[in-house]
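During data preparation, a discrete fold description was generated, and the record follows.
___
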Amino acid sequence: MNLSEMTPVILTWNEAANIGRVLSKLNQFDRVVIVDSGSEDETRSIAQSHGNVAWFERSFDQHALQWQYAIDETGIETDWVLVMDADYVLADAFVESLAVLSLDESVAYFASFEYCMDGQPLRTSLYPDRIVLIQRRQCRFIQDGHTQRIDWQGPTQTLTGPIQHDDRKSRTRWLLNQTRYAKLEAARILTTPFFERRLSNRLRSIPGLMPILLPLVLLFGKGLILDGQPGRAYVAQRRTAERLIQKALKQARRESR
């Protein structure tokens, strides 16, 4: 297909640390839609320095609703949308593979991800494969814990090559986000019957287990100990995230009583 038949869509909020690198890999697309939630840093000026960016603003309420606005209310005319986070960096080879892809309108396309710490790719991570390429008229979002997912029940295919997830925002910002996410994850866990929960959420239901178990699995089971300091930094992040979820679960249980 021609890249002119596809529109990348990105949500932003204070993404000055990332958005320039992301947009530099999207200059072959005719139009890139950005919906911002009121950034107070240089996100807007960096984004608008790229001539193919269409800038929109909307007050944030929920990820799923923000994404649905971005798809439905920003004048996208292409049949296909490329759903991207503001820290997804596309390799040139990935973009080239999109340009020659024979798209099937009955299919949604997953991408795998190469997680980076301070720009250093890791051999593995917990970041899941996601649908990133789908027909615009089929693109419907539902809230899923702290984030959103595309509500697609049809056939899927996986695109060639990974996308780099390369978030270089500050640790303070990361911790702020994770604290908010933990509360949403705790609410999802406690409102889902035990045997309907994902395995990870069943394990999180056992107080204190995941902050101990997960680092061991990542370091030794997944081999992140071989990635040196970046691998250890990622594991430390995940341990902190699990501790925050445990704290949020404890608080939610206390409030429910």
In short: The first strand starts at residue 6 and ends at 12. The mean pLDDT is 95. DSSP finds eight helices and 13 strands in the chain.
